[in-house]
Amino acid sequence: MNDYERIEKAMAFMVGHAAAQPNLEMVAAHVHLSAFHFQRIFCRYVGISPKRFLQALTLERGKQLMKTSASLLDIAHSLGLSGGSRLYDHFVQLEAVTPGEFKRQGDGVEIVYGVHETPLGRMFVAVTPRGICRMGFVDATSAEALQERLAKEWPLSTLRHNPEATHYAVEALFAKPKEGAAALSLHVTGTNFQIAVWRALLTIPEGQLASYSHIAQSLGTPKSSRAVGNAVGANPIALWIPCHRVIQQSGALGGYRWGLEKKQIVQAWELAVSNSALSPMATS
């Protein structure tokens, strides 16, 4: 078991035992490490301490579920899209496949892909010359299945295994963008409504949550919550298009194509990281 696998296993253990508030020694023992060594590698790869992660998973996440009573646009405007989040839409640029490109079915396009270890799980990433076109957790489905789906969406394209060319897509998730860094480009294919929903997801601030109805209202279609849910479920780029930030109006997690445990892990990680950016006690 490598360090990434240990971190993922530890996060899953904390999700499953959050009510019992396991201490550092208990979590470390679950992944067969000393408390000191586990604390060190968790902070190194995740950017926060296990304690911070567990806090976000319990009390802090509960507080977030109670906050989003305003519209999605009001939330975005009140917090300011020019803030420090690395996932705001000023850093992530979403481009849709044009009708002409769709008709050509990827003819003449080379798509590189690779599988990468991350603290949140192994991820499949595919990139066109215009940006990231597919990103998903391998533990929820196989890399081969994700590759086959990609080939069906771009049947005339050339697929080439090149992890060196796709690593940046996951590396950027765990590091703040440098001053003046170019926007991260996403290259997606979908209906006009799906793309509108995915753009709306990019306006949900990091560490915040919104409901399906909030997104429907922000699109000017308040009765389209079910259609919004379908579009959220069809999101082709995990994490960068943050469908994990969408919950039910009641505060329940709702669905997630990569599994509810994974959704809890991602939400807690993101909330803890965003809170730690404001606090000098990030590793406490």
Automatic annotation (TrEMBL):
Its EC number is 2.1.1.63. CDD domains: ATase. InterPro entries: Homeodomain-like_sf, HTH_AraC, MethylDNA_cys_MeTrfase_AS, MethylDNA_cys_MeTrfase_DNA-bd, MethylDNA_cys_MeTrfase_DNAb, MGMT_N_sf, WH-like_DNA-bd_sf. GO terms for biological process: methylation. Keywords: DNA damage, DNA repair, Methyltransferase, Transcription, Transcription regulation, Transferase. It comes from the Bacteria. It is an enzyme of class 2 (transferase). GO terms for molecular function: methylated-DNA-[protein]-cysteine S-methyltransferase activity. PANTHER family: METHYLATED-DNA--PROTEIN-CYSTEINE METHYLTRANSFERASE. This is Methylated-DNA--[protein]-cysteine S-methyltransferase.
